[in-house]
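Supplementary Text 2. Reproducibility record for the structural model of the 418-residue chain.

All settings were left at their defaults, and a single model was retained for analysis rather than an ensemble. We include the record here because the model underlies the residue-level annotations in Supplementary Table 4.
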Amino acid sequence: MSAHKQLTIGLFGFGVVGEGLYKVLQQTPSLKASIKKVCIKNAGKKREAPAELFTTNRNEILSDPEINLVVEVINESIPAFEIVSTALLSGKDVVSASKKMLAEHLPQLLELQKQTGRSLLYEASACASIPVIRNLEEYYDNDLLHSVKGIVNGSTNYILTKMFEEKLDFKEALLQAQQLGFAEADPTLDVDGWDAVNKWVILLLHAYGIVSSADEVLFNGIQNIQGGDAAVGREKNLEIRLVAQAKKLQNGKVAAFVLPQFVKKEDHLSFVKNEYNGFVVESSFADKQFFYGKGAGSFPTASAVLSDISALRYHYQYEYKKLYHHKPAELTHDFYLKVYVSFDDWQYIPRDKFEWIEEWHAEDERKYLAGVLHASVLIESNWWKKHNLSLILKPDAIIEDIEIRNLKKKSLELAGVV
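Retained model, structure tokens:
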């Protein structure tokens, strides 16, 4: 058995997560991991740690031969990628929490790990304290995985919970989330769905061996959800969540998206409220398994970084089995979705693009319809993100080609055409 490795850490970033990690490491001496240097951007800021720990010169960490592990928890994606790639090329292992950087540079990062033989771990980049990546990586075989779905952004989930349970409108709920620190001053990355889709790109790699990017995945955030949509949900005993899903279709390809969705009360995800995250794995023989925990915050995120640091003492690496040792799955947009759309004006609805429309209601202020669309209609144009339109998936939204043919045939039979 290989011996524990003594870890000497160079830390980049001392914000919420960096400081959380510093405190957590002080409370876990058994880890045999110590921070030698912390690189920060703003030297003048008051911090609760000895001044000699800090530097603004990244080379003090990257060219120090004693530092064998770089932990990167900064917000900006371009500098984060430079730090991570330089560290790997310098023979150092890396732990990162930067989902945007990881999602934007997956092919290069996979190549760098192959080239250097070093380890890059990033459990903290998706669902914070919930060990999702390691579970998908180690436990679930690609061929047996039917679907993965989850709530992977705490800020949007908090806002939706408040809109639903306290009947706040979107702006009030967002303001509350910002005051409590669950949403950033500029909340665009969260509310427009970017944060969630970046996490989903990372999880698609570990679930199905798919190397993709945000622009290949169908996604939107909750920025257009109205109080009226929540009221429609309440009437039908449904709640709204921002749901990320990947499902293996009968043809072996994978349908993936991150979109607002109505969920039934008995769905595991309806149980996930406020800033919590939840993740449901469905596999051939284990049925459904549900992971639940805090998806953001100082200590939950630091705990995921800590688990990666701990694994590195045993020289742990992701093997990317589904990418390198299996036939990787392929992303497809060839499927249909059951959708609900609320809107102010009919002229913005391309009715000819719907396979069929099941119901529509015209209230004084707001109209809504429910129908079926091919996913490519949403991928190819973003009419549904504009004009104050709100598009929400219905429960069990995915319909495959075979099912569509059967449903059309049945409706024609009922109409007496066949």
